[in-house]
């Protein structure tokens, strides 16, 4: 059995943990627990997923030794507020990865890894809507799934996938892992840091009332603000300048004709891909 442990803050806050060596999907386990009546505050963590998935049902490759973790929560918030939990997850994961990566050797990545940490360019940056970059390559991803309960509330599975020992091959984007970055930290190390970071950021969120504060932290760690961006959605590509994330969590693009367009969903590209016109 892997030696996953909760951080001290997570233990003090009453979170619980189930650890696995290998599992089909930690999100599936969380949603099954919700259906069985679990009140939430329960983490599922594994060293491997055999049926992991990302956004829009895409497969999530999970080589053995990487981190797959899902937190089941049942917040006292409406559906609009719970939709912003992805930003809570992003800020928490950004903090956790920043804690396990060395502070030195800061580099700016080709895909816009130019967030700010401690007043300087950060090696780790958040990519809208749900990725974490390291030196411009994808290091981690987040997936939220909701399930309506009999009492009208929504159980939320907040899923995290972190490339600790290896990155997936044959994917259409740059990817990396902690090991490839020269960082020898295990999935259990990342999980312990994540469980504590979640407590801090979720407390800031306050059932949606504190989303403005969470978004401020997210923007400060964001990749690509002020740079060219291309957003692919439903077969169309919008190009322009990534201006900000608005108060509803939408990506705001300033188009060539100076229109400001708010995007609710899509695949984001920076760098040469964003500037290309073909």
Low-confidence stretches: 104-122
Number of domains: 2
Shape: globular
- What's the rounded overall pLDDT mean? 86
Pfam families: BPL_C, BPL_LplA_LipB
Keywords: ATP-binding, Biotin, Ligase, Nucleotide-binding
Catalytic activity: biotin + L-lysyl-[protein] + ATP = N(6)-biotinyl-L-lysyl-[protein] + AMP + diphosphate + H(+)
Protein name: biotin--[biotin carboxyl-carrier protein] ligase
Short description:
The protein is an alpha+beta fold and 278 residues long. Helices cover 25% and strands 28% of the residues. The chain folds into two domains: 8-220, Bira Bifunctional Protein, Domain 2 (BirA Bifunctional Protein, domain 2, 2-Layer Sandwich), CATH 3.30.930.10; 228-275, Roll (SH3 type barrels), CATH 2.30.30.100.
Describe this structure in words.
By secondary structure, this protein is an alpha+beta fold. The chain has 2 domains: about 10-220, 2-Layer Sandwich (BirA Bifunctional Protein, domain 2), CATH 3.30.930; about 230-275, SH3 type barrels (Roll), CATH 2.30.30. About 25% of the residues lie in helices and about 30% in strands. It has 7 helices and 14 strands. The strands form 3 sheets. A 7-stranded mixed beta sheet has the order 1-2-3-9-8-7-6, sandwiched between helices. A 5-stranded antiparallel beta sheet has the order 13-12-11-10-14. Strands 4-5 form a two-stranded antiparallel ribbon. α4 packs across α5 (about 185-205) and α4 (about 85-100) crosses α6. Its EC number is 6.3.4.15. GO terms for molecular function: ATP binding; biotin--[biotin carboxyl-carrier protein] ligase activity. It is an enzyme of class 6 (ligase). InterPro entries: aa-tRNA-synth_II/BPL/LPL, Biotin_CoA_COase_ligase, BPL_C, BPL_LPL_catalytic, Transcriptional_repressor_C. This is biotin--[biotin carboxyl-carrier protein] ligase.
């Amino acid at each position: 059995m892997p030696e996953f442990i909760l951080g001290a803050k997570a233990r003090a806050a009453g979170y619980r943990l189930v650890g696995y060596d290998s599992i089909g999907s930690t999100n599936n386990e969380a949603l099954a627990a919700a259906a069985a009546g679990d009140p939430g505050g329960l983490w599922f963590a594994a060293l491997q997923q055999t049926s992991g998935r990302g956004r829009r049902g895409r497969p999530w490759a999970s080589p053995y030794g990487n981190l797959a973790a899902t937190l089941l929560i049942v917040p006292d918030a409406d559906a609009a507020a719970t939709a912003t939990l992805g930003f809570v997850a992003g800020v928490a994961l950004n903090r956790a990865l920043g804690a396990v990566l060395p502070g030195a050797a800061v580099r700016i990545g080709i895909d816009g890894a130019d967030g700010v940490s401690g007043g300087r360019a950060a090696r780790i940056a958040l990519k809208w809507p749900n990725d974490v970059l390291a030196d411009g390559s994808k290091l981690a991803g987040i997936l939220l799934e909701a399930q309506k309960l009999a009492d009208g509330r929504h159980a939320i599975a907040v899923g995290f996938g972190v490339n600790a020992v290896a990155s997936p091959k044959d994917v259409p984007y740059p990817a990396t892992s902690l090991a490839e970055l020269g960082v020898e930290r295990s999935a259990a190390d990342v999980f312990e840091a994540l469980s504590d970071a979640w407590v801090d950021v979720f407390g800031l969120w306050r059932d949606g009332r504190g989303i403005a504060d969470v978004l401020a932290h997210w923007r400060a760690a964001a990749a690509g603000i002020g740079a060219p961006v291309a957003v692919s959605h439903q077969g169309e590509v919008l190009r322009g300048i990534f201006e900000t994330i608005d108060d509803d969590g939408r990506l705001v693009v300033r188009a060539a004709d100076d229109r400001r367009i708010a995007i609710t969903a899509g695949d984001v590209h920076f760098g040469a891909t964003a500037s290309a016109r073909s």
